[in-house]
Amino acid sequence: MESEPLIAGRGRDQHLGTEEALLSSEILEPTKEALPVAEIASGVYALFVAGLVASTLGLEEYYQLSDKAISIIFLCPPVGFFLAAYFSRALHLKCGRRVAVIVAPICQLTYALTASQAPPFPVLLAALVAVGFFGLMDGSLYAWVGGMKPAKTVIGLLHGAFSVGAASGPFLANTITSAADRPWYTWYYVLTAFVFLELPCLAYSFWQHDVESFHVENGRKTIRDEAEPDEDDEEPRPESSFGYTATWIGSAYVFAFMGVEFTVTGWGIAYMNRVNEGSNLLGGACVSLFHLGLAAGKLSLGVMTRYVPVQLLVTSFLCLALLSQVAFAVSTVPAVSVALMALLGFLLGPLYPSGIIMMTELLPREVQVAGISFVNSMGQIGAAFMPFVFGLISNRFGIEMLVYYVCLQLALIIPLWLCFFRLR
C-alpha cells in the first residue's frame, strides 16, 4: 500500500489553486468577470502605505538607544504578524475579507498616532506590535489575488508598491522634518494622514467581500446553507495549513528572502560609510535605489514570465544576484557600488511574489489565507532575526562581512526555491 504524501500536490484533482485546476476552471467558465480595478488600486495604495510605515522609525537619537534596544524594535512587529496569522482564518470565516482589510489599517493608525506623540519607549514598542496586524490584510490580499488569471502581474504590482513606499519613506521623512526643522515624530503626523486615507478606500472597494462571498469563493457552505451542519464538513482551523509541506518550504523561503532584504537595508548605510568611505547621503541613496530596484523587479514579473518560465527566471536571477555581490565586494568606486545595489534589488524583486504564487498553486483554496499569513509572519521573523545575527557578526569580525553574509543567504534560497517544483 502506498503511503499518502504530506504535500499539497496530492490533492490536485480535488482542490483549487494548482495549475490543472485553474486551467480546468477557465475551460468550464469561459466568461470571466472584469478585473476588480477598485480593489487592486486600493490594495496597491495600502501596500505603499505599509512600505512607508515599515521604513521610517528614526528613534535612536531621541530615545538614546543602545544596539540591544534597537534589536528589540525589530522583534516587535513579528509578534503582531504571528497573532494575525493565528486569528486570520477565524476572522475571515466569521466576518469576511472586508473586516480583515479594515482592521489592518486601524492597527497602523494606532501606531502612527502613538508615535506622533513621542511616547515612552515601552509604549512605542507596544504600538509596534500593532503594526504587525497588517498581516491580516497582507495574507488576505495575496490569497485573493492568487486566484486571478493575471496573478503574477497583480502580486508583483502589490509588492512593488510596498518597495516604492519603503524607498520613499526615509526620503520623505528626512525632507519634511529637515525643511520644517522639526523632530522625527513630526513625520508621523503625515503618516497618520496617509493611513487615514487608506481606511475609506479599502472599506469602499472591499465592502461586498463579506462573509457570504468568502464562503462562496472558497467553495464552502454559506451561512444560510448551514442550518443543518454536515459532520463531514469541518471548518479548517488556522493550523490546518501546517499539514502541507508547501507551508513549511514557503516559510523557510520567505524567511530567507526577507532576511536578505532587511539585512541589506538595515546595514547598507553603515557598510557604505565604513568600507567605501561614503556619507549618510550616499548610503541612503544606496538603500533607496535598492528598494526601487526591488519595485522594478516585482512590477516587471508579469511581463518577464510571459517569455521565460518562472522557475528558470528566479533561478537565473538568484545566480546573477550572487555574482553581483561578488562584484560589490571588490568594487572600490562608490557610484559602482550604488549601481550594483540597485541591480541586486532588481534581481531579488521577483522572488517574493513568485513564492506567493507557488503557495497559491500548492495549497488548497480553503487554507490559503491561513497558510500565506503564517508564511508572511515567518518572513517578519527573518526580517528581524537575520539583521540581528549580522549585528553580532559585524561586532566580532567587522562590517566587511556583510557581502559574504548576503551571499550565504542567497545560496540557501536557491535549494528552497527548487524544492517548490518538487511539490508540483
TrEMBL record:
Keywords: Membrane, Transmembrane, Transmembrane helix, Transport. The keyword Transport applies. Its main location: membrane. Pfam families: MFS_1. The chain crosses the membrane at residues 34-57, 69-87, 99-118, 124-145, 157-180, 186-207, 246-269, 281-301, 308-330, 336-357, 369-390, 402-421. Residues 227-236 have a biased composition (Acidic residues). It is found in: Endomembrane system. Residues 247-424 form the Major facilitator superfamily (MFS) profile domain. Coiled coil: none annotated. It is a multi-pass membrane protein. Residues 222-242 are annotated as: Disordered. Gene3D superfamilies: MFS general substrate transporter like domains. InterPro entries: MFS, MFS_dom, MFS_trans_sf, MFS_Transporter. SUPFAM superfamilies: MFS general substrate transporter. It comes from the Eukaryota. PANTHER family: BYPASS OF STOP CODON PROTEIN 6. Belongs to the major facilitator superfamily. This is Major facilitator superfamily (MFS) profile domain-containing protein. It comes from Bionectria ochroleuca (Gliocladium roseum). The lineage of its organism: Eukaryota, Fungi, Dikarya, Ascomycota, Pezizomycotina.
